[in-house]
Amino acid sequence: MKYLNWGALTDDLLEILVMNQTQLAKQCRVTQQSVSNWKTGVRSPGVYARHVLRELAKEAKVTLDDYKTIPYQKPVGKTVSESSSAVSEDIMNFAQRLSILPKRQREKIMDMAEFMISRGN
User: Fold this and answer.
1) R_g over Cα of the chain
2) Domain that holds residue 84
3) Which of 67, 92, 111 corresponds to the end of one domain?
4) How far, CA to CA in Å, does 42 sit from each of 36, 110, 117?
5) N or C, where is the chain less crowded by C-beta within 10 Å?
6) Residue 85 has what pLDDT?
């Protein structure tokens, strides 16, 4: 899969399988720093590590479709924020970026946003 959010998948696998980065690194035959780089999106795993991550996803009963992404690109043409809508450009940009994240990551962000909003009241 060309566009997969490896960082979110790695993070979820570590949590579900109750592993630390060093243990995962050993299974993938990489360093702990490599796993950290996948989590933060600095780098993507290599071919062998991707294979291992897919196998671990099966073991964890995680659906890879939840981690599919599309490359980020600015919209072409007139956007909603340029029309007569009162929605700010910042909110539109955030919504667009949020829409390309995997479902599990979107849910985490929405939970955090709801928490922050409730604290503000």
Assistant:
1) 17
2) 80-120
3) 67
4) 9, 24, 30
5) C
6) 55
